[in-house]
Every structure is written in C-alpha cells, then in structure tokens.
Amino acid sequence: MKTLFAADIALVWKDLGVITARLQSLEDSGDNVQCQQDAPQSELDALKLTNLLMEGRIAALEDSKRQRNLKIRSVFEEVTESETPHYLRRLLSSILTPAKAKAISLDTYFRLPKPAKAPDGVPRDLLISFQSLRSKQLVQAAVRDTPSYHFEGANLTFFNDLTRSTMVWRQSLHPVTQHLRNHKVAYRWGPGRKLTVLHDRKRIQLQQQSDAGKFFKALGLPTPETLQTNAPGANSQPTTQMWDVSNVQPFYSKARSTVVEPNLVGT
C-alpha cells in the first residue's frame, strides 16, 4: 500500500512538473509576442526621433545659408524695384551713423511672394542680403529694442530669414521664452536649433520643450504649470499666420545679458 501511495505521489509530482513547464512555456511565448508587438513601436519611435534630428540639421544648414539675409516688413509697394536701392540707402543712413551706413554693401534685394492667407493690403516683405554678417548685425543691434521702426510714413519691422520649420520650432518654445522674459533672463537663439542662456558662466541649452523642466532646473527657475501639463512636441503647428508679426520672436530678448557672445546670433 505504501509503495502504491508513494508511486501515486511521484506520478502527481511528475504531472505537476509537466504542467509547470507548459505554463512557463506559455508565459515565455506571451512575453515573446508582447516583445514582437512592442518592437515595431520602439522602432517607429526611434525612426521618428532620427527624422526629427535630421530635419533639424537640414533646417540648420539652410538657415546658415540665410545668415546674411534680413527681411523688412511693411515697406510700401510704391517703392519700386528701381527705387529700392535708393530707399535702402536712405533707410540705412537713418538707422546707423552716416559713416557706418556708407560702409555697408548689399549683395541683393528683392520682394518676397506674399503668403496666400495674407490680407490684400499687406505689402510684400522686402528681403536684403548683406555682403558681410557683421553689417547685418550692426542693423540688428540698432533696431533691437524697437518693435517697429518709423521711416518715411511706414512702421517697419525687421526679421531674420529663417526656414518655416525653424520658425514653427521657435514658436513651439514660446511658453519657455515667455517664462524667461517674465524672470528677466536673457537668451539667444543659437545655431542648430538651440535656445541658449548664459548662467553662472555656463551655457544652458534647450532644443525640445519636453526638456523644459530640466532646463529651468539648471537655471534655478520654477517650471510653469502650463509646461508641466501641456508640452507639445517640437513640430507643433503655429497658432497664427506666418505673415503675422506677432508669431516671430524679436532679434534678442529685451532682458539683456551683460555678457556678449559674438558667435550667437539672435532673432
């Protein structure tokens, strides 16, 4: 009897071992299926990140080609193509000292096509290209803190010539730059889609709004609730028309830094 009972116990343990092995096999199969399901999503996320970085690099290369360009808005259409060089010479002489204005040379100048959604009464932007980046920076510095420059009956505004994707990217960081301005922190738009702040002799940089928390922590600033609860990606679409002045950042933030960084060209 004891022998039979022992044999039955051994058989039960054997069957239990088989069942345990089958369960483990099923669990392993389930994990493999889940991994296979997660793999395409992980690959997709990696591809999206790579694509985003590549878009940023391409835009940075395109922006670098436009570094010497400057867009002037609200120049009356009555300023014809033949009148443009004389108009620009008068404008530069008004913005700069006569000696500095005389030293500036332009490569080219022309009217840009008007966006389809721009109002009929809005003049086309005038794009000018300087022969040197230094000349452009002199003009930028002179109109830096002027929301609009009144000249010959028009209120002119000046903008860098940036790719649309870069403009959209900068607009996606508007909550960040607004928070910096509220705390009187100077910032610069650096090359390669970087928002740069000089803090304790160190450059603190931000490329995506999702990293705003770390960015503000490095600056010793609180992160605003709007950025904690609503952090759109770098490809957020603009909420205003691209021809509208309100959606373009000024050349430099009005909260100036006492440290001059010549290699950082703001917009």
Molecular structure report:
- The protein has 3 domains: 1-65; 67-160, Alpha-Beta Plaits, CATH 3.30.70.1820; 164-247, Rec A Protein, domain 2, CATH 3.30.250.
- It contains 8 helices and 8 strands.
- The strands form 2 sheets. Strands 2-3-1-5-4 form a 5-stranded antiparallel beta sheet, with helices on one face.
- By secondary structure, the protein is α+β, with helices and mostly antiparallel strands.
- A hairpin with a 2-residue loop joins β4 and β5.
Core attributes:
3-stranded antiparallel β-sheet; alpha+beta; Rec A Protein, domain 2; 8 strands; Alpha-Beta Plaits; 5-stranded antiparallel β-sheet; single chain; 3 domains; 8 helices
- Our count of domains comes out at 3
What is the overall number of helices? Answer: 8
Strand tally is 8
Mean pLDDT: 75
**Share of helical residues:** 40-55%
Q: Give me the CATH fold name of the largest domain.
A: Alpha-Beta Plaits
Report the sheet with the most strands, covering strand number, pairing sense and barrel closure.
5 strands, antiparallel
Low-confidence stretches: 230-267
Q: Would you list the SSEs in sequence order as H and E?
A: HEHHEEHEEHHEEEHH
The oligomeric status of these chains comes to single chain
C-alpha end-to-end distance: 95 Å
